[in-house]
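User: Please run a holo structure prediction.
Assistant: Happy to. Please share the sequence and the ligand.
User: Here you go; the ligand is 2'-monophosphoadenosine-5'-diphosphate.
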Amino acid sequence: MITGKTKIIGIFGDPIEHTFSPLLHNSAFRELGLDYCYVPFLVKSERLKEAIEAIRALNFIGVNITVPHKEAVIPYLDEIKEEAKYIEAVNTILNNNGKLIGFNTDAYGFINSIFEEGVRVKGSNILLLGAGGAAKAVAFGILKEGGNLFVFNRTLSKAYKLKETFQKMGNIEIIKEINADIMKNFQIVVNATSLGLKDNDPMPINPNFLSRDQVYIDLIYKDTPLLKEAKKCGCKTLDGSGMLIWQAAKAFEIWIGKAAPLPLMKKIFKDKKNY
Ligand code: ATR
């Protein structure tokens, strides 16, 4: 129940009605008996600055930031954590007595979700498909953990831009063309493009290039056509649901100062069609 003492956390985005985060966090608060409430707010781009000021004015504990505000929010914050600077996007804000601190929990989410499944990053050659927002979070996580990163993107200039941003963190190379020979070098393939979200999307690479000793990771939360092909081929496969849950768990920890109830969050996500 909401009382005079209830602490508020929000999520700002446009659109916002499909967000899964309120269910995840409110269930976690209930499970742990915490007097917090997580509320979605539809925030239009032209009112983002006012919305950020409202975090202080209304004494929110913090907020999540989602599409399309993750980059635009940066100039309005008082401090930006290292990972968010690299990724050039903030998805979590903590209100520390009026000082707004920007974090990005996506890289942490990605790494923890794959570590949990026993995927080894250190010393592995990892092919990253894509060079957009999601790809930058993956790049940060992989380089931080000592993986060798190879980036392939439709727009080559964006891949070079990503390399420029991240090269001081570790080994990163651009792949200009995917073929069967090149594919033999990689132990892990990550799809961080948006291909697979829509039913008629082409696959980001030819599935015949995959081999059963490779791990295929898709950041999309459902079985994309390429993920299905990778499974058929005998690859170990992971979809994006683990990353979603672990990034939420990290945000929870930043706001509340306690570990999130991961098993509950996983169950809620798995049963999401029931809500
Ligand atoms: P997100 O925040 O989900 O990462 P984004 O920043 O718009 O979204 O990035 C989308 C990624 O998917 C980019 O790497 C994009 O490639 P471009 O840089 O060439 O645009 C990739 N992508 C989207 N549609 C694609 C398509 N039809 N073919 C190949 N890559 C595509």
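The CA atoms of residues 8 and 60 lie 5 Å apart.
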